[in-house]
């Protein structure tokens, strides 16, 4: 094969007639990506006869592909040299949009799993939707979030291969569409395996275009209408995170990719086995990433029974052996349910199979003596609602949570009756992150520091980081670590100045909270605590404050009014603090715009403090927490989700834990009185009152007053301060201030950071995927 760089030149010449110096960034991106695609082609094939796992997910938040793919192929250095030699800044590809086909943690987890599986030789393919527009782009106007469409295909899509020959039809009550797969290579590190991410695009069935020979205005508009209606299904990602969107189009999306993916597996399977389905579950394991793809369960049942004439019992056995379900949330409002009427108006052909499942569940319960009222709590069809999680638990062989505490809450609090029924079905798979993107690629400086001391084995065996622990007592290593941290801060400051027009000080401590904006994640608590510091410094109550940059990054779902109010509030806090000359040497507050994977890759390596402050019992796992740990930040957090496992590994003494535990929150049940706290504590009152006393301006929207009454009065659908901000406020501020003071001893603080890195091994998604492959999929 021709050298990589010659291939790039050749593609550029053929496509644009230009060379690298004069080519546009888009042309360069396309040529580099396509040259790389050429090279991986021989490895991009499936091993026959081996069981494959299929990850069904409505979201894959892969981020920017070009660097990660070149890195895993071992071509990144060569590419950067090639660009430099031709006078092109290797940062040129930072203009390429992220593939933001996901909202947050759940979608990013799917992307990390693909990287890990391919790197470890686990045959795992992803199946999802090729949204025309991913998660919206965000900017601020006068401190308010504004949304614009995410046109991620602007620079083309050179990492996908359209497979017309593999398209299938998907039928709804009111339309039939063609699902066309776009296959992306999921590339393993170091020339490992190349698996496939298959994303389906919805098109009109006769995609061949209109018959102009028979041109007729009426037929033409009819064809255009059908095309638009077909394309609407994969047009846009629902910008919701942890709240369901009970919308017709959302259900269509779910059925669209579920049905298309199953049809593609069955086409492949029946080509080899005809209609003998006895081997199906030995050849495919399907992991359902939350309830979004759970409609796959009745759909497979339907196909087996109606197309292949299997009995219910035979079909159910295949279904149950094939599917496994991952639960991602315990928040009651996020457990997906579909209205029977709506469901039947969209996919009436599937509904009878849900009725059969509900009946089978009734029989299974009866056999165990559970009847009458006892049965009620289990129902799949409950009155007018279809309960997707119940269907998933009943019809699959494995149900997992995503962190130890989350799985315990599922078993004991959220789904105890199901756990009593099927104790063996429940298991835990603590989330992880890929060390390729989240250390090797985003922090080459820290990577070198590590590799110089313990070798490069950590890239595929993250537990090797343990060998760093002895260096936590080595002043030279700690100095080197601090130099790297400083360098990453300088790089981030330059990036932020260019992007946001704000100048930050790299000599400050960096305190970072980046994640979707949600009340349970408590960005508002963070803002209140900044105000408490601000007032405390003004009053002289707080002295010797280590100068700190407080950074936020988050998108709010466009219809989530309170989340948008919190963004506005934090931007107003930033305006107050940053415009006060007395604060110039003390603190700076900034909410960055359009937080996404690529931004995370810049923010995380520069952080000293990782803010993980969700109300105990609300964050299933979190993965942002792991990315910070791996890059040498300490966690300032509650005992929630994977924070618990993080401090178990890295030591409480090397992190900053505060606030009510899950047990303490439960014990408050019905007895929590936030107004009493507000009235008795001056500091709480002063921070909370900024919502209404004119200190901060919400542009006369009434947004801030609404936040205020949510905390003190509640609303028709929730109790006052249902995320316990005021309860945790003082412990949070005190612990945060302790971290702020500890930071002044740079060596002691660096030691904590380095020990976090040293103990981050268990949070590699390589470990997580190996557990799924061994424990659930049976393909490792
Ligand atoms: C990792 C990641 C998340 C998840 O962050 P949490 O803190 O676990 O909620 C969300 N968005 C992006 C872009 C990420 O990279």
TrEMBL record:
UniProt GO molecular function: glycogen phosphorylase activity; pyridoxal phosphate binding
One GO term of the biological process aspect: glycogen catabolic process
Cofactor(s) it depends on: pyridoxal 5'-phosphate
Modified residue annotations for N6-(pyridoxal phosphate)lysine: 627
Coiled-coil ranges per UniProt: none
Entry GO CC: cytoplasm
InterPro entries attached to this UniProt entry: Glycg_phsphrylas (IPR011833), Glyco_trans_35 (IPR000811), Pyridoxal_P_attach_site (IPR035090)
Catalysed reaction equations from the record: [(1->4)-alpha-D-glucosyl](n) + phosphate = [(1->4)-alpha-D-glucosyl](n-1) + alpha-D-glucose 1-phosphate
PROSITE patterns according to UniProt: PHOSPHORYLASE (PS00102)
EC number: 2.4.1.1
Keywords tagged on the record: Allosteric enzyme, Carbohydrate metabolism, Cytoplasm, Glycosyltransferase, Pyridoxal phosphate, Transferase
Primary site of residence: cytoplasm
Pfam families, alphabetized: Phosphorylase
Enzyme class, spelled out: transferase
Localization annotation: Cytoplasm
Function summary: Allosteric enzyme that catalyzes the rate-limiting step in glycogen catabolism, the phosphorolytic cleavage of glycogen to produce glucose-1-phosphate, and plays a central role in maintaining cellular and organismal glucose homeostasis.
Record family assignment: Belongs to the glycogen phosphorylase family.
Protein's name in the database: Alpha-1,4 glucan phosphorylase
């Amino acid at each position: 094969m021709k050298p990589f760089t010659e291939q790039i030149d050749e593609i550029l010449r053929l496509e644009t007639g230009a060379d690298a110096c004069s080519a546009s960034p888009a042309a360069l991106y396309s040529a580099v990506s396509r040259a790389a695609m050429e090279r991986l082609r021989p490895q991009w094939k499936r091993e026959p006869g081996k069981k494959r796992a299929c990850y069904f997910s409505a979201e894959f938040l892969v981020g920017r592909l070009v660097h990660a793919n070149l890195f895993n192929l071992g071509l990144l250095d060569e590419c950067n040299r090639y660009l430099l030699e031709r006078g092109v800044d290797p940062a040129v590809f930072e203009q390429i949009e992220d593939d933001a086909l996901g909202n947050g943690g759940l979608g990013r987890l799917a992307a990390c799993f693909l990287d890990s599986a391919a790197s470890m030789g686990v045959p795992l393919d992803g199946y999802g939707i090729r949204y025309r527009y991913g998660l919206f782009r965000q900017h601020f106007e006068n401190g308010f979030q504004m949304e614009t469409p995410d046109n991620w295909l602007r620079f083309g899509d050179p990492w996908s291969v359209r497979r017309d020959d593999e398209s299938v039809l998907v039928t709804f009550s009111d339309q039939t569409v063609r699902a066309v797969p776009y296959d992306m290579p999921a590339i393993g590190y170091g020339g490992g395996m190349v698996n496939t991410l298959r994303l389906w695009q919805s098109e009109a069935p006769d995609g061949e275009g209109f018959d102009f020979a028979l041109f007729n205005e009426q037929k033409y508009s009819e064809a255009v209408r059908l095309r638009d209606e077909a394309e609407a299904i994969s047009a846009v990602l629902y910008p919701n995170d942890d709240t369901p969107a009970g919308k017709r189009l959302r259900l269509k999306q779910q059925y669209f990719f579920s049905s298309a993916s199953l049809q593609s597996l069955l086409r492949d399977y029946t080509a080899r086995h005809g209609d003998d389905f006895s081997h199906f579950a030995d050849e495919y394991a399907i992991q359902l990433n939350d309830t979004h793809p759970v409609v796959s369960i009745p759909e497979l049942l339907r196909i087996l029974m109606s197309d292949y004439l299997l009995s219910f019992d035979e079909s159910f056995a295949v279904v149950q052996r094939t599917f496994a379900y991952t639960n991602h949330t315990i928040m009651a409002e996020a457990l997906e349910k579909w209205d029977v009427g709506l469901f039947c108006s969209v996919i009436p052909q599937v509904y009878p199979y849900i009725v059969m499942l509900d009946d089978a569940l009734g029989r299974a319960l009866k056999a165990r003596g559970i009847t009458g009222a006892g049965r009620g709590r289990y129902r799949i069809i409950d009155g007018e609602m279809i309960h997707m999680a119940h269907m998933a638990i009943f019809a699959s062989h494995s149900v997992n949570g995503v962190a130890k505490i989350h799985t315990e809450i599922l078993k004991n609090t959220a789904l105890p009756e199901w756990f009593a029924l099927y104790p063996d079905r429940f298991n835990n798979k603590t989330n992880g992150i890929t060390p390729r993107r989240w250390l090797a690629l985003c922090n080459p400086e820290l990577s070198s520091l590590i590799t110089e001391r313990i070798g490069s084995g950590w890239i595929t065996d993250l537990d090797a980081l343990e060998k760093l622990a002895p260096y936590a007592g080595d002043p030279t290593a700690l100095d080197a670590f601090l130099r790297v941290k400083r360098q990453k801060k300088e790089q981030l400051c330059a990036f932020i100045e260019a992007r946001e027009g704000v100048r930050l000080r790299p000599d400050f401590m960096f305190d970072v909270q980046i994640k979707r904006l949600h009340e349970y994640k408590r960005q508002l608590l963070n803002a209140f605590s900044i105000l408490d510091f601000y007032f405390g410094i003004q009053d002289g109550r707080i002295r010797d404050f280590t100068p700190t940059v407080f950074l936020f990054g988050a998108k709010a779902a466009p219809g989530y009014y309170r989340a948008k109010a919190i963004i506005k509030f934090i931007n107003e806090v930033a305006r107050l603090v940053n415009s006060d000359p007395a604060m110039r040497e003390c603190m700076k507050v900034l909410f960055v715009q359009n937080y996404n994977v690529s931004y995370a890759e810049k923010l995380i390596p520069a952080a000293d403090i990782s803010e993980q402050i969700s109300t105990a019992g609300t964050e299933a796992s979190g993965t942002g927490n792991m990315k910070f740990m791996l890059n040498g930040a300490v966690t300032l957090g509650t005992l929630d989700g994977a924070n618990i496992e993080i401090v178990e590994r890295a030591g409480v003494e090397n992190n900053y834990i505060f606030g009510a535990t899950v047990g303490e929150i439960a014990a408050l049940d019905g007895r929590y009185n936030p107004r009493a706290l507000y009235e008795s504590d001056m500091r709480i009152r002063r921070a909370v009152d900024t919502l209404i006393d004119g200190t901060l301006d919400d542009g006369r929207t009434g947004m801030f007053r609404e936040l205020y009454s949510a905390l003190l009065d509640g609303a028709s659908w929730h109790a006052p301060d249902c995320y316990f901000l005021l309860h945790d406020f003082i412990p949070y501020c005190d612990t945060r201030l302790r971290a702020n003071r500890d930071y002044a001893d740079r060596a002691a603080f660096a030691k904590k950071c380095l020990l976090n890195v040293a103990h981050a091994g268990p949070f590699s998604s390589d470990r997580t995927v190996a557990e799924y492959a061994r424990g659930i999929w049976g393909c490792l």
